[in-house]
Automatic annotation (TrEMBL):
<feature type="modified residue" description="N6-(pyridoxal phosphate)lysine">
    <location>
        <position position="66"/>
    </location>
</feature>
<feature type="binding site">
    <location>
        <position position="390"/>
    </location>
    <ligand>
        <name>pyridoxal 5'-phosphate</name>
    </ligand>
</feature>
<dbReference type="GO" id="GO:0008836">
    <property type="term" value="F:diaminopimelate decarboxylase activity"/>
</dbReference>
<dbReference type="InterPro" id="IPR022643">
    <property type="entry name" value="De-COase2_C"/>
</dbReference>
<feature type="binding site">
    <location>
        <position position="362"/>
    </location>
    <ligand>
        <name>substrate</name>
    </ligand>
</feature>
<keyword id="KW-0210">Decarboxylase</keyword>
<dbReference type="InterPro" id="IPR022644">
    <property type="entry name" value="De-COase2_N"/>
</dbReference>
<feature type="binding site">
    <location>
        <position position="334"/>
    </location>
    <ligand>
        <name>substrate</name>
    </ligand>
</feature>
<comment type="pathway">
    <text>Amino-acid biosynthesis; L-lysine biosynthesis via DAP pathway; L-lysine from DL-2,6-diaminopimelate: step 1/1.</text>
</comment>
<dbReference type="GO" id="GO:0030170">
    <property type="term" value="F:pyridoxal phosphate binding"/>
</dbReference>
<feature type="active site" description="Proton donor">
    <location>
        <position position="361"/>
    </location>
</feature>
<keyword id="KW-0663">Pyridoxal phosphate</keyword>
<dbReference type="GO" id="GO:0009089">
    <property type="term" value="P:lysine biosynthetic process via diaminopimelate"/>
</dbReference>
<dbReference type="InterPro" id="IPR022653">
    <property type="entry name" value="De-COase2_pyr-phos_BS"/>
</dbReference>
<feature type="binding site">
    <location>
        <position position="293"/>
    </location>
    <ligand>
        <name>substrate</name>
    </ligand>
</feature>
<keyword id="KW-0456">Lyase</keyword>
<comment type="similarity">
    <text>Belongs to the Orn/Lys/Arg decarboxylase class-II family. LysA subfamily.</text>
</comment>
Length: 439
C-alpha cells in the first residue's frame, strides 16, 4: 500500500496523517470525514514555485480552486504565495471572503454571466481569461460603460490531445473551451481585443487536459502557440508578455499511475519555451501554470465507517460504507480508481477481496471494486486515499444526504475547517407549498 505525504502506520496499527491518529479523528468528528495533509499541500506548492525561482523565470503559479475551494484552503494558498484561478462567481466570492489578494486572481469559465463579469470588475481582479466571442464583446461593452480597463488572456485550443480520460480532454479542436488556434478564430479575437481601448491583452492561455503524466503535450502546445505569437508579432505588432500553459499535472491514485515530480513538469516546459523563443526571436514571456489536483489530490483522505455487507456466493462480497457518490462522485462519473485500507487495522494483511458500495439508492454508487482487505466488519474505519481533489468540491445532497466535514491536520494538530451539514441545513432554502398559492 502506497502512503502519501505524512501518512504512516503508528504503533497502534492505526493510519496516522499529520501526526494525528485517523481513528481518533473519526471518533472526534464522525464519518464520513475528509482529512487533508497540510504539510503535503505546502510541499507541492513550494515545489512548483521554487523550480521557477531556481531557473530564474518570471512566473505565476495559480491554484486551480475548482479542485477544492474553501476559505481555509484559499488562506493556505495565500500563505504559500500562490495566485488563484476561479471559474465561477461562487469561487470568486469565496476568494474575497478569504481576503485573497485580488490582483492575483484569474477568472476562467466558458459562460461567465454579466453579473459574474461585473463582480470581477467591481473587485478589480488581476486577470480575466476570455473564452469566446460572446464574452469578449460583453466584457468590452461592460468596461466601456464603466470606463474601466481590464487585463485579459485569450484562451486558445491548440489542437493537442493529452493522453487522459475522454471526459476531461479540453485542448483538442472539438472543445467547448477557447478560440481555435487553427481556423483563424484566435487571430480575429486578438485583433478585436488589441483595438479595444478597455482590454489589455497580457497573452494567451491553453489547457490540454487533466491527469497528464507526460510533458510532450505541454511541449507541443507551447510550440504551436509560440509559432502563432511569432506570426502575430510580425503581422500585428503584438508581443504577449504572458504564456499560460494551464494545469492538468497528474497524481498517483493507483499503481497504474506514473506522474512526474512537479519540478520535472516545470523544468521541461521552461526549457521548451526558452528554446522556441530563441528560435523565433521572441522575448521570453512570463509563464503561468494552474495546478489544482496536483496540489491537493493526494493530500486528501476520506474516512468512512463500514456498515452492512452482502455475500454473493462465487461472485463477490460487498461492503457498504456511510458515504459514497454524494462525497465522491468520480468513480460513477469517470470510472475513477482508488486505493484504501482499514484505518483501525492498517498493519493487517489482506485476506479477501471486497467491493466497496456507497449508501445511495443507485446501483452505480460503487467506490472501489475488488479491494484487498482483512476480514472487515461493521464499524471498521475505511480510509480511501487521494480524495483531496474533486471530492468535496463535487459533493452533493443526493438522497438528501448531508455533506461531510473537512479537517486539516498538520504537526500533530487538527482543525475543523468545514462543518458537517445538518438536516436543518438541507432544508434551509426550502419553502412550503400552500394550498392558496397560485402557480
Amino acid at each position: 500500500m502506497h502512503l502519501h505525504g505524512t501518512a504512516k502506520i503508528n504503533q497502534n496499527g492505526h493510519l496516522e496523517i499529520g501526526g494525528k491518529d485517523t481513528v481518533e479523528l473519526a471518533e472526534k468528528y464522525g464519518t464520513p470525514l475528509y482529512v487533508y495533509d497540510v504539510e503535503l499541500i505546502r510541499k507541492r506548492a513550494r515545489a512548483f514555485k521554487n523550480t521557477f525561482t531556481k531557473l530564474g523565470v518570471p512566473a505565476q503559479v495559480a491554484y486551480a480552486s475548482k479542485a477544492f475551494s474553501t476559505i481555509a484552503m484559499l488562506e493556505l494558498i495565500k500563505e504559500e504565495g500562490l495566485s488563484l484561478d476561479v471559474v465561477s462567481g461562487g469561487e470568486l466570492y469565496t476568494a474575497i471572503k478569504a481576503d485573497f489578494p485580488v490582483e492575483k486572481i484569474h477568472f476562467h469559465g466558458n459562460n461567465k454571466s454579466d453579473e459574474e463579469l461585473k463582480m470581477a470588475l467591481d473587485y478589480k481582479i488581476g486577470c480575466i481569461v476570455v473564452d469566446n466571442f460572446h464574452e469578449l464583446h460583453t466584457l468590452h461593452h461592460l468596461c466601456s460603460e464603466r470606463d474601466q480597463k481590464v487585463n485579459i488572456l485569450l484562451r486558445v485550443t491548440p489542437g493537442i490531445e493529452a493522453h487522459t480520460h475522454d471526459y476531461i480532454l479540453t485542448g483538442q479542436e472539438d472543445s467547448k473551451f477557447g478560440f481555435d488556434l487553427q481556423n483563424g478564430q484566435a487571430e480575429t479575437a486578438l485583433i478585436f481585443a488589441i483595438e479595444s481601448n478597455y482590454l489589455n491583452v497580457l497573452g494567451l492561455h491553453c489547457h490540454i487536459g487533466s491527469q497528464i503524466f507526460e510533458t510532450i503535450g505541454f511541449i507541443l502546445a507551447a510550440r504551436k502557440i509560440l509559432d502563432k505569437m511569432s506570426k502575430w508579432q510580425e503581422e500585428l505588432n503584438f508581443t504577449p508578455s504572458v504564456l499560460n500553459l494551464g494545469g492538468g499535472f497528474g497524481i498517483r491514485y493507483t499503481d497504474e499511475d506514473t506522474p512526474l515530480d512537479p519540478s520535472s513538469y516545470v523544468e521541461e516546459m521552461i526549457n521548451e519555451v526558452k528554446k522556441e523563443t530563441e528560435r523565433l526571436s521572441l522575448p521570453m514571456p512570463e509563464i503561468w501554470i494552474e495546478p489544482g489536483r496536483s496540489l491537493v489530490g493526494d493530500a486528501g483522505t476520506t474516512l468512512y465507517s463500514i456498515g452492512s455487507s452482502k455475500d454473493v456466493p462465487n461472485i463477490r462480497k460487498y461492503l457498504a460504507v456511510d458515504g459514497g457518490m454524494t462525497d465522491n462522485i468520480r468513480p460513477a462519473l469517470y470510472d475513477a480508481k482508488y486505493e484504501a485500507l482499514l484505518a483501525n487495522r492498517a498493519n493487517e494483511q489482506p485476506k479477501e477481496k471486497v467491493s466497496i458500495a456507497g449508501k445511495c439508492c443507485e446501483s452505480g454508487d460503487m467506490l472501489i471494486w475488488d479491494l484487498p482487505l482483512p476480514d472487515a466488519g461493521t464499524n471498521d474505519i475505511l480510509a480511501v486515499f487521494c480524495t483531496g481533489a474533486y471530492g468535496y468540491s463535487m459533493a452533493n445532497n443526493y438522497n438528501r444526504i448531508p455533506r461531510p466535514p473537512v479537517v486539516f491536520v498538520e504537526n500533530e494538530h487538527d482543525q475543523l475547517v468545514v462543518k458537517r451539514e445538518s438536516y436543518e441545513d438541507l432544508l434551509r432554502l426550502d419553502l412550503p407549498f400552500k394550498e392558496k398559492t397560485k402557480i
